[in-house]
Design brief:
With 146 residues, this protein is an alpha+beta fold. It is built from four helices and five strands, in the order βαβαβββαα. It binds a DNA duplex (12 and 12 nucleotides) through loops.
DNA sequence: GCCAACGTTGGC
DNA sequence: GCCAACGTTGGC
């Protein structure tokens, strides 16, 4: 799951312990959010930063939450085409697990994984939420503590 | 700041 | 339904 650290970083999550992952406004990303279950692990990716990369680990504590910012006309995430009767955007609540001692940079990710294994290394990739195969996730957790 | 990638919008 | 224009993402 991607976030720009100047907007919301792993340090912010560490301080707050948990957060509702608001503001995803892309249908494919939303569908991946909808597919999440309580207890699922998720990597926290810092995008638009230098260097970009995986900054830590978190866990889904509440699946399938309606993203209330879609109804808030003052929010940058407001969606006038959505309605409370039929909300368009759902998300999850996540809890902090750890900030990696050292960020796993995008450069390293590109060296270690193919575009098929880890979508974030795909050129032109703009999805903000994407699945990570279990074997890749396992290796990433090992790399984080190597 | 540039620009490739790509999703969305809206005219037709 | 097509597709050009436009806006956003995000690496570099």
């Amino acid at each position: 799951m991607k976030s720009e650290p100047n907007v919301y970083s792993i340090a912010d999550l560490q301080r707050e312990r948990k957060t509702i992952w608001e503001g995803v406004r892309n249908y494919q990303a939303r569908n991946f959010l909808k597919a999440m279950s309580k207890g699922d692990l998720a990597f926290f990716y810092h995008s638009n930063s230098s260097p970009p990369g995986i900054a830590g680990l978190m866990q889904v504590i509440t699946p399938n939450i309606v993203d209330l910012t879609q109804f808030d006309a003052n929010s940058q995430y407001y969606d006038p085409k959505s309605s409370t009767e039929s909300p368009r955007w759902h998300t999850v609540a996540v809890e902090f697990i750890e900030a990696f001692p050292q960020l796993i940079s995008l450069e390293t990710l590109k060296q270690e994984f193919s575009a098929e294994e880890l979508w974030v290394v795909r050129r032109g990739n703009r999805l903000s939420v994407m699945p990570v195969p279990e074997a890749v996730a396992k290796k990433l957790r090992e790399m984080a503590h190597a």
